[in-house]
Prior knowledge:
By secondary structure, the protein is mainly alpha-helical. It has helices at about 1-20, 30-45, 50-70, 70-80, 85-95.
Amino acid sequence: MPYVGIAHVLWLVWTIVQCARLPFGIEWLQLVWMAGYAISWVAACDLRKWGALAYMGLTITNAVIFLAVKDVYLRDVYMSSIFLIDGIFSFYLLFFFKRFTN
């Protein structure tokens, strides 16, 4: 689990570097997604139940956006860039969910 947390933090840093070159706009939504995923996964690494629930909630929100938005460009803008991998990690969290504390 810590390796996935490190990967999320590195992806967040990479997203910050990519967004720094762009003017503030809707493209910065990727930064918000990655910050949410990184913070919640780090909390899940500490076996916090709220971190696991937040991570799974973000993944479910991305799935709803994927299913609701038909335009491919809007999907790329509004969805997380690592949506499919996050689905796999959510199942991983569900597998260990009983070990988590409040």
